[in-house]
Design brief:
Antioxidant, Horf6, Chain A, domain 2; Glutaredoxin; binds benzoic acid; alpha+beta; 5-stranded mixed beta sheet; 7 helices; 32% helix; 3-stranded antiparallel beta sheet
Amino acid sequence: MEEQKEVFQMPRIGDQAPDFKAMTTTGMMQFSEHIKGSWTILFSHPADFTPVCTTEMSGFAVLEDEFKKMNTKLVGLSIDSIHSHVAWVNNVKEKTGVFMKFPIIADIDMKVSKLYGMLQPGESETAAVRAVFFIDPNGKIRLIMYYPLNVGRNMDEIIRALQALQTADEHKVALPLNWKPGEKAIVPPPKTIDELEERLKSNYEMVDFYLAKRSL
Ligand code: BEZ
């Protein structure tokens, strides 16, 4: 008979980010307090002292100032002890010069991993998958990425997705396939006949009334 795997509730896009208190490499954190008023990227990695994770966490560390300029805090997590985290952060700094200054949650009891659906037993019962939660300044989850243990994430896409979310909010637009900053945005389709007529007279770049783009 096939073994039953534990199923955890997973937060979804549009949900308030679940709150928790946890030990991190920069001290105790009440998550809701820490993230108040800024964007937050909460991301998990499977284990300290592993190669893919080291490349990814270093990638976040190298771009931490870029994220700061975008009013975005970084918070890492893995199911490792605080001692392991501290030793790993120090080792990476010594060996590569890259310093992970952002807090990394020591989720040794798996409390936060389970709360955020980062523990996906079909992939691993003991290590968090590579999850990325984009949380807005109101504490709402806006975008979620999950990667398996054996595939590293793409920092360019993480930055692009954050830029897209912030741009969509600022200009009340949607953003098309492969959108990058500087490119045109989608104007929301008309919802009334009057809006449709106005749209047809507009100067927008238009395929038809429902697919129109404008510069920002
Ligand atoms: C890694 O980061 O290299 C890794 C961690 C867990 C499983 C597989 C790879």
